[in-house]
């Protein structure tokens, strides 16, 4: 799944360069994943470790309400 996401991002970057930013509206952004139970939190930590090992920047946050209020 991660490799497919990276390939997709790279292809969109190429299309944006070829066609120009006024034609292709694409911006690489991050995401927020929230665990609602202790078990889910353990699984989320394991997922974050795998992502970090693959070179994805991860960050554990406690102040979710400040970052994503809606």
UniProtKB/TrEMBL annotation:
<feature type="domain" description="FAD dependent oxidoreductase">
    <location>
        <begin position="3"/>
        <end position="69"/>
    </location>
</feature>
<dbReference type="InterPro" id="IPR006076">
    <property type="entry name" value="FAD-dep_OxRdtase"/>
</dbReference>
<protein>
    <submittedName>
        <fullName>FAD-binding oxidoreductase</fullName>
    </submittedName>
</protein>
<dbReference type="Pfam" id="PF01266">
    <property type="entry name" value="DAO"/>
</dbReference>
<dbReference type="InterPro" id="IPR036188">
    <property type="entry name" value="FAD/NAD-bd_sf"/>
</dbReference>
């Amino acid at each position: 799944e991660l490799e497919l996401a990276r390939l997709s991002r790279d292809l969109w970057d190429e299309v944006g360069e070829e066609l120009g930013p006024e034609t292709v509206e694409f911006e690489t952004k991050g995401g927020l994943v929230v665990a609602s139970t202790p078990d889910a939190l353990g699984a989320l930590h394991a997922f974050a470790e795998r992502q970090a090992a693959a070179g994805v920047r991860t960050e554990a946050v406690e102040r979710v309400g400040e970052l994503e209020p809606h």
